[in-house]
UniProtKB/TrEMBL annotation:
GO terms of molecular function: pyrroline-2-carboxylate reductase activity; thiomorpholine-carboxylate dehydrogenase activity; thyroid hormone binding
Family annotation (Pfam families): OCD_Mu_crystall
Native source species: Hucho hucho
A GO biological-process term: thyroid hormone metabolic process
Quaternary structure annotation from Swiss-Prot or TrEMBL: Homodimer. Binds the thyroid hormone triiodothyronine (T3); T3 binding inhibits enzymatic activity.
EC number from the UniProt entry: 1.5.1.1, 1.5.1.25
Protein name (database record): Ketimine reductase mu-crystallin
Family label: Belongs to the ornithine cyclodeaminase/mu-crystallin family.
Lineage of origin: Eukaryota, Metazoa, Chordata, Craniata, Vertebrata
InterPro entries: NAD(P)-bd_dom_sf, ODC_Mu_crystall, ODC_N
Enzyme class: oxidoreductase
GO CC, any one term: cytoplasm
Catalytic activity: Delta(2)-thiazoline-2-carboxylate + NADPH + 2 H(+) = L-thiazolidine-2-carboxylate + NADP(+); L-pipecolate + NAD(+) = Delta(1)-piperideine-2-carboxylate + NADH + H(+); L-proline + NAD(+) = 1-pyrroline-2-carboxylate + NADH + H(+); L-proline + NADP(+) = 1-pyrroline-2-carboxylate + NADPH + H(+)
Length: 312
């Protein structure tokens, strides 16, 4: 049984979860979810307990994939941190159950799972929706998600140029150094996204940082931050001019400030595109609004557990 904690388990999970295994399983799970058949997938919208005093929330994210027999929940705390804070913004633990007996089979660190499965789903969105000839990738934000997105996007696609912007330039510089200089640092969001084919927003912002007037027509935006109904990363212009895709419609209309406050219509779930029931409008400007789903943690946890068992 995996029952280690924090740093050692982060390290352990890191070595057991690989994008090449994760991406196909996430595609299958997203497709099943979008069939809206409770005989296949049961995943309520995440329950959130606001921690106003600390500018954060506790999220409970249970899911059951019936045929795969994966019963799982993630417990995640997320905080909006002041610039310069050294406290972590996300801490998470994933519990994998034996669905027949109800016992917990494994307790694993959820930070790597959260980082990798979120980035992998953004990569799936880009595979489906980015312009056919995409050369420039811009990442807004320079934290954990920025790194996992950089890793999976450069592993999966061949961009000629990767740019980063962060609200603190030194963090963007540190990020660029960690990639051995394969990323260029930009002073302003407007300059960083100028001409970009793919833009990943992975900030802790609660007000828009990316404005539609700066985005090249036809570009694809994977919008990963702003996970509360009153938080924004994207402005109304972008939300209204783009075709909006989501991971879960139900989650998006309950939790996404970018969707709720702009009044933008959701065009499709990624799973609907994967199932062939809604089109991938690659030639249009597209936004994939990611909120994160329990099924994504569940398939990741199963993979980690399988890999761990094969080594013990
Ligand atoms: N969609 C999902 O499934 C999912 C999963 C995990 C995290 N997230 C979200 O992704 C975002 C990034 O998470 P992370 O783990 O990389 O966090 P992190 O704390 O490691 O990094 C956050 C980055 O955002 C920047 N930032 C913070 N506040 C900002 C502001 N007001 N304006 C501009 N930049 C700001 C920070 O400087 C840092 O570069 C968060 O909003 C988090 O809620 C989404
Ligand atoms: O789906 C998730 O895991 C994250 C947790 C933090 C806030 C946003 N969503």
């Amino acid at each position: 049984m995996l029952s280690h904690w924090r740093s050692s388990s982060t390290y352990e999970v890191e070595g057991l979860l690989h994008y090449k295994d994760l991406i196909p399983r996430l595609e299958v799970a997203l497709g099943k979810f979008s069939k809206m058949d409770s005989a296949e997938v049961i995943q309520p919208v995440r329950t959130t307990v606001p921690l106003q005093k600390y500018n954060g929330f506790l999220g409970l994210m249970p899911a059951y994939l019936v045929h795969e027999d994966i019963l799982c929940t993630k417990l995640v705390c997320f905080y909006k941190r002041e610039s310069g804070s050294t406290l972590p913004s996300t801490q998470a633990t994933v519990l994998l159950f034996d669905p027949e007996y109800g016992n917990v089979k494994a307790v694993m660190d959820g930070e790597v799972i959260t980082a990798k499965r979120t980035a992998a789903v953004s990569a799936i969105s880009a595979k489906l929706l980015m312009p056919a000839k995409s050369e420039v990738l811009t990442i807004l934000g320079a934290g954990h998600q920025a790194l996992s997105h950089y890793n999976v996007f450069t592993e999966t696609f061949s961009f000629k140029e990767v740019r980063v912007w962060s609200r603190r330039k030194e963090m963007a510089e540190r990020f660029a150094q960690s990639t051995q200089g394969h990323v260029t640092v930009w002073e302003s969001v407007e300059e960083a996204v100028n001409g970009a084919d793919v833009i990943v927003t992975v900030t802790g912002a609660s007000e828009p940082v990316l404005f539609g007037q700066w985005v090249k027509p036809g570009a694809h935006v994977a919008a990963v931050g702003a996970c509360r109904p009153d938080w924004r990363e994207l402005d109304d212009v972008l939300m209204r001019q783009a075709e909006v895709y989501v991971d879960s419609r139900e989650g998006a209309i309950a939790e996404s400030g970018d969707i709720i406050l702009s009044g933008a219509k959701v065009f499709a779930e990624l799973g609907e595109v994967l199932n062939g029931t809604r089109p991938a409008l690659r030639e249009k400007t597209t936004v994939f609004k990611s909120l994160g789903m329990g099924i994504q943690d569940a398939v990741s946890a199963k993979l980690v557990f399988e890999q761990w068992k094969s080594k013990h």
